[in-house]
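Course assignment 3, question 2. Fill in each field.
Student: A.L.
Task: Predict the tertiary structure for the chain below.
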Amino acid sequence: MREKIKESSKQQRETLKFFDEKALDWKAKALDKKKEPRVNVIKQRNDFALHVVNNRNETDMVLDVGCGIGDLAVAMGKLEANVYGIDFAPGMIDIANDLAAKSGVKNVKFAARDFFTMSIEDELYDMVIANGFIEYISFAQRDDFFGRCIKILKPGGSLVVSSRNRLFNLFSVNAYTEQEMKERVIGDLVRETVAWNMKPKIEEMLKFTPVPLTDPLIEHANTGVGVSTRYQYTPVQLIRLLAEMGYAVKEVSPIHVHGLTPQMKNEWPAMHVKVANALQERALNNVTMLGQASAFMVHAVRVQ
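Answer field:
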């Protein structure tokens, strides 16, 4: 199924163009058939979502927003969940449909659709997943997304969302660090990083004063994704946003934990892969690693 996607901003035009053109490259990254040593961030995010579903009492209906090539949706389908995967890049959905057919999974469906124009029944889903999604939408759309998700989730339903990690800008010592210096928030980022390093309970961090959100028109240095504005959040920014909208935040987990800075990673890629993968094995819900993680996951629940 396809619908005409309304391109509402430069950010989303760039996002649609990039993911539609790079669908086959994304497939190669996600499925990793060559099995060469590398850091598979897509798999790390998917593994966290599977961890959540495996620890729920029951997960029947799942919505995967920004499902990409459908690898996570198919994996969840194999766990007997009924999964609906949507992505606004038709090239991704073509691959997802092919993957589902080859996998023989019958309880997974895909569509090229825009979440924000869909009509969705209230309290329909046990779980909504949004991996690699909120970085590509505006702040207003982000709030709309979280607000709609809490309505379409059943009581006790889970929202699993990934985010690029703004705290990592301290560790990266590059153009991102210089941007934070210009915004005069280095001290605030350090304070949050230190606080997470003390192994606090999530309830404690909900009382922490968050760093101000970045300029909504910011354009970051190129990271290999052809989208000039890709938002970052700190964990506190995101969990407080969710709590204010009525969610109970249950888990915060680092993704792509670095032992080497990005510059060192470029100089010694094999060492980075070895160290990062070893650290990731110990990263599940280990909030002390957030300062060295380029992304993080949040699991939040609609309160009964």
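Instructor remarks: The first strand starts at residue 61 and ends at 65. Residues 1-7 have pLDDT under 50 and may be disordered.
Grade: pending
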